[in-house]
Design a protein that fits this description.
The complex is a heterodimer of chains A (857) and B (277). Chain A has 27 helices and 33 strands. In chain A, a hairpin with a 2-residue loop joins strand 23 and strand 24. Classes of the chains: A alpha/beta (857), B alpha+beta (277).
Chain lengths: 857, 277
């Protein structure tokens, strides 16, 4: 038995002995010093988080070579120097004991979920040799196109290093990014209205009416620290309305919660537009007005286009006539289940606050099979209210100076040129996949369809695949397809921090550096009216033998390919990349990582001309500060210039909208759909039909209502499933952190150490299900077993569950039993079938597209 | 002086940044055996029926009471004492591990699982069990290719559960206390120690704000001296009708009710008031 102080006192009952204890007990505070020193010395070192898509500039506090604390970069204007809870979780991700220490190889040739790969540790030498041999085999057999590189989380400035160069120089068209499982359909609305393919910023410091539509900025989907920072003041200054079928963190605090029936958002958006027009609340400054000043927008009545004089917009009357005139609040109430008086109140509030209204469009209503039109309808409200590119509204971000990498055309051999001309594996550009990205028809990635393509050998089979910082067997809907697809790929290399689900199908596994703390890179993003470029650097020595995915590992592979007779990639890396300070070329992987980082940030620390933002004094200054902040955004820059003709490679190209105006009637959509139809020798109506849309004729070119597509009929699958994101999700990678589970309760309605499905108590009663019961949740394509929680924050008839848990691999804390592939909780992607918003190629995961049934388990 | 914290519920979004940041600053261990070891924590409530639902997140922590119940039965010389700032401090030297403080503090329980409480501001590191025993585990997930927690911990002078700091309270305690004061603050508490918020005294005495305060992205936590009418905390308490917690069951002190005179004040509402049209 240990002698504790209590037992000691009980035993001796001698108070006088107390003094004698002072010595040993104080000595036990080995590191204690007297005085008021706040601790062991340390340094704050800048880097960038990348736990979500906001990529926050941060600082790590480093003590004796270990990162111990995190805060926002104090100089950053986008996050105001703060991190959200995700930032702090980085520490448990970095020092996760289940991270891979060394390369591994599989010794069990059989592949499948639950099949032990029997991984054994190998040397880098053996791993690289095996990879290079497999790649060279493709070159020998003249089938380089059967090589595929899949990119997960990445650094935007390093695109040319791995994703952009390796497949092309090797001879494959297959560089595939993860982006379309994220939120590409969110870009659809802004693109076909204002010609902007990108994520918007919102002037939260000045907005008077914030409409948060299908996202939860206090938790996820962009600029979380800035949204948290500004939210309370907006509630003082004005109104926040949240449109979300479940009570989100934002909805819980807002003045207005509109729990729309999942997927019926465009009914609500068109009804708001209807009220704005009938009540004369639109922006006369932006949209224009009737020539004689009299408002002719009367419910049910068509308007003569000639009666209205438009300013910076195109087709407001066409939109009214084709769609809006019948979209009354009474009509919308029946569809969206939002009471008409609330629709009226919100629409009037928005109109009154215009133009200082920000309609924040999130993935909820748009990452669904018919998501393009709600995307347009919701974003178009910013146009009607004149809040687009305006103070207190929805706008873009200042441009950042670019530092392009050297061209590699000279290093493309004949095999690379021919092989690269093959069709891409993901079937983009086929008739049913228009996949229009930023005006490029058939060019958007359809990442989740890669599994189907592999399974069908259509357009061909894949023989060698490399994936980095991705985990599609967990993160893609229809996850089970990826298990079959990856089991079919004969040789797969996974570059990953943890033994993830996708890793279980790998032949070679390489330990990846934890990017925010161990990797050299450069990241850019924006929020709060500022853009920035920030550094990622090894604030600590990488754990074990981890190496940077996009730089070091690609260099090592290139080096090995050179040794085996294909020098081009390595020649490009080693000859063309030069240190901007010294002109030195890289001699090894580490130097390559550092030089590429210096090159891709040189535009801000060694600018050709003085910059309008921060002034940096060379590389060392940038490294020390970790950030370049741009100048503040100036509004109304795009008014009258939403599109223009530009020359690209000698060809005249359209940039932005076809009319150069903000389009309520989208000539831009008509143009690109027309191009796709022409390519397939068919009509736009046909293209829309095979893409799953219902609109015909002119209606296709205006934002309009379509009922959502739903998997599973309402009889058999009566509950509409709502997927949402945790404020602690670091994109599905933080579930092995114990703090994730301790604080899971910070997600509104969730419980710590559980993965609950939330059911309205009315439905719970009908089902005979109580809080704490295990239930089996079944969709038409899969099922999971999780705990039920009866909760008033979801509408009867809908059930909500957070994405993130349900790992059957990844680590000891994430999985219930790693060795036996038993998940902890349930993965929503087992329930959600793979379906697409086909105009953009996005994976559907929201918008009420899946019905489920619930049975007591 | 009396140090106090004002928590602005309208600004608070319940995100958890303060609570996790506190764990990184103060090295509290993982939950276990009825102890939360969360010096900063939350209480959540959902009331009403769909769609009129009222949800709130209430950040909770040691109230550093002016009439601290935790000190009442602490055997003399008391391990618990008040510093000149009004912080309720703990001196391990005089603790006999009776855990009366946990029983007496209205915001604490000896075993939160048994009491079904949302939180406890005082935790206790069980005698005979190493703190942070997660990092004593020697199991590897994949033999030879992944590490054990113990192996990771062994790599560093400052192990993964630790932000190294030290502090010793050299000032005598407030007069009239049956305590000798002068507590030492260890970055990692050992088994047999009481574990509670010390208001980041190591930072306060260094002129820095507590770590939960500087880590709050909303700026919802405001620290100040109640005896200084010009402190921001005093001003906010004057401006808004503040509320104080009565216990860890979610009850508030009523008007005129003193309780243990907690020094954490809550202002405004988590859910915004509806605007008149």
């Amino acid at each position: 038995m240990r002698i504790t102080r209590r037992t000691f006192i009980q035993a001796t009952a001698a108070a006088g002995i107390l003094a004698a204890l002072d010595g040993p007990i104080l000595n036990s505070l080995a590191s204690a010093q007297s005085g008021q020193d706040s601790g062991t010395a340390g340094n704050w070192m800048p880097s960038t988080c990348q736990g979500c898509t906001q990529w926050c500039p941060v600082e790590f506090y480093v003590q004796e070579g270990r990162a111990v604390k995190v805060r926002g970069n104090q100089l950053c204007k986008a996050n105001n120097g703060y991190v959200c809870p995700r930032g702090h979780l980085m520490l448990q991700q970095l020092y996760d004991p289940d991270r891979l220490k060394v390369p591994m190889k599989r010794t069990n040739p059989q592949k499948g979920r639950g099949v032990d790969p029997k991984f054994v540790a190998i040397t880098w030498d053996e791993a690289l040799d095996t990879i290079a041999d497999k790649m060279m085999e493709l070159r020998k057999n003249n089938e380089t196109h059967k090589f595929m590189l899949m990119r997960g989380r990445y650094s935007p400035t390093a695109t040319e290093l791995a994703y952009g160069t390796i497949p092309k120089m090797f001879g494959s068209p297959n560089n595939l990014s993860h982006s379309s499982i994220c939120a590409e359909a969110e870009k659809v609305g802004p693109f076909y209205t204002e010609g902007f393919w990108g994520y918007r910023d919102y002037d939260l410091a000045r907005t008077k009416y914030l409409v948060i539509w299908g996202c939860d900025p206090l938790s996820s989907n962009r600029q979380v620290p800035n949204a948290i920072n500004k939210f309370g003041d907006i509630l003082d200054r004005g109104t926040i309305a949240v449109i979300d079928p479940r009570l989100s963190a934002s909805a819980a605090k807002a003045q207005e919660w509109l729990p729309v029936k999942p997927g019926e958002d465009s009914a609500l958006a068109t009804a708001i537009a209807h009220v704005v027009l009938t009540e004369g609340l639109w922006s006369k400054e932006f949209v224009g007005d009737f020539k004689d000043g009299k408002n002719l927008f009367v419910a049910g009545q068509a308007v003569d286009e000639a009666a209205f004089e438009e300013k910076f917009t195109n087709g407001v009357v066409k939109w009214w006539n084709l769609e809006l005139k019948d979209r009354t609040p009474e009509w919308a109430e029946k569809i969206s289940l939002i009471p008409q008086d609330q629709i009226l109140r919100v629409a009037r509030g928005m109109g009154k606050a215009a133009p200082n209204v920000a309609v924040w469009l999130g993935p909820g209503p748009v990452m669904s099979p018919r998501g393009a039109y709600p995307s347009m309808a919701i974003h178009a409200l910013n146009g009607l209210l004149g809040s687009v590119d305006n103070e207190g509204g929805a706008h873009r971000a200042p441009k950042l100076p670019k530092s392009p990498f050297p061209k590699f055309d000279a290093y493309l051999d004949d095999m690379a040129k021919t092989g690269g001309k093959n069709k891409k594996i993901d079937q983009r550009g086929t008739k049913a996949f228009p996949a229009i990205s930023n005006g490029e028809v058939g060019k958007g990635v359809v990442i989740n369809n890669v599994a189907n393509a592999i399974l069908a050998d259509n357009p061909y089979d894949i023989k060698v695949a490399i994936g980095y910082w991705n985990n599609f067997n967990f993160s893609c809907t229809g996850a089970e397809r990826w298990d079959r697809a990856m089991a079919k790929v004969p040789f797969f290399v996974h570059i990953t921090t943890n033994p993830a689900e996708m890793t279980q199908f790998a032949d070679i596994v390489l330990p990846a550096a934890f990017a925010p703390a161990e990797k050299w890179s450069v990241i850019s993003n924006m929020a709060n009216l500022y853009s920035h470029i920030s550094i990622q650097q090894p604030v600590v020595k990488p754990m074990w033998e981890a190496k940077a995915d996009e730089t070091e590992i690609m260099w090592l592979i290139a080096e090995r390919l050179k040794a085996k007779g294909f020098p081009n990639i390595h020649d490009y890396f080693s000859k063309e990349f030069k240190d901007p300070e010294t002109g030195a070329t890289p001699m090894n992987a580490e130097e390559f990582a550092l030089i590429t980082t210096k090159m891709s940030s040189a535009s801000v620390w060694k600018p050709a001309e003085p910059l309008k933002g921060d002034k940096l004094d060379g590389w060392e200054d940038f490294k020390k500060k970790g950030i370049y902040n741009s100048e503040q955004y100036t509004f109304k820059k795009h008014w009258g210039k939403f599109g223009k003709e530009v020359e690209k490679d000698g060809k005249k190209m359209l940039e932005g909208t076809a009319t150069f105006k903000f389009e309520f009637y989208s000539e831009t959509l008509k143009k690109y759909l027309g191009e796709h139809a022409e390519k397939h020798k068919t009509t736009i109506d046909d293209v829309l039909e095979v893409s799953g849309y219902l609109a015909k004729g002119e209606l296709a070119f205006v934002p309009h209502y379509e009922p959502p597509k739903r998997w599973g009929d309402e009889k058999e699958y009566p509950f509409t499933f709502i997927d949402y994101k945790s404020r602690l999700n670091r994109e599905g990678r933080s579930q092995n952190a114990p703090w994730y589970h301790e604080f899971k309760k910070v997600d509104v309605g969730d419980e710590s150490y559980e993965d609950v499905i939330k059911i309205n108590p009315v439905d719970g009663k009908k089902l005979g299900v109580k809080t704490g019961d295990m239930v089996k949740v079944t969709s038409p394509t899969g099922s999971i077993k999780v705990k039920a929680k009866l909760w008033e924050g979801v509408r009867p008839g809908t059930v909500a569950k957070c994405y993130g848990q349900g790992h059957w691999a990844y680590g000891r804390t994430a999985a219930k039993d790693y060795a036996k592939s038993i998940p902890k909780g349930g993965n929503n992607n087992e329930l959600l079938p793979d379906d697409y918003e086909r105009l953009s190629g996005s994976t559907a995961r929201n918008g009420g597209f899946v019905g489920v049934k619930i049975q007591k388990a | 002086m009396q140090i106090a914290m004002v928590i602005d519920l309208q600004k608070c979004v319940g995100c958890g940044a303060c609570a996790i940041a506190c764990k990184t600053e103060n090295n509290t261990q993982l939950r276990g055996k009825g102890q939360t070891f969360n010096w900063a924590d939350f209480m959540y409530k959902t009331e009403g029926k769909f769609p009129d639902v009222n949800y709130s997140a209430i950040p909770v922590r040691c109230n550093h009471c002016s009439d601290p119940a935790c000190m009442k039965q602490c055997p003399e010389p008391k391990a618990l004492y008040k510093t000149e700032e009004g912080i309720t401090m703990y001196n391990q030297k005089y603790c006999i591990q009776c855990r009366k403080c946990q029983e007496d503090c209205p915001y604490s329980d000896k075993d939160i699982d048994k009491e079904k409480s949302a939180y406890s501001v005082i935790s206790f590191n069980e005698v005979g069990v190493d703190t942070h025993d997660f990092y004593k585990n020697k199991n590897e997930l994949i033999k030879g290719a992944t590490a054990s927690p113990a192996e990771v911990a062994g790599k560093y002078a400052v192990p993964p559960y630790k932000h190294a700091y030290a502090f010793k309270d050299d000032k005598p305690p407030l007069k009239g206390q049956k305590s000798k004061g002068k507590g030492a603050v260890a970055d990692v508490r050992k088994d047999g120690w009481v574990d509670k918020c010390h208001f980041c005294i190591h930072r306060i005495r260094n002129g820095e704000e507590p770590y939960c305060v500087v880590s709050c992205p909303a700026g919802a936590r405001i620290v100040g001296d109640l005896e200084d009418p010009n402190s921001k905390a005093s001003q906010l308490i004057k401006k808004y009708k503040p509320m104080r917690l009565k216990d860890n069951k979610g009850e508030w002190l009523k008007d005129g009710e003193k309780g243990t005179q907690p020094n954490v004040y809550y202002i405004r509402n988590f859910k915004a008031e509806a605007k008149s049209a």
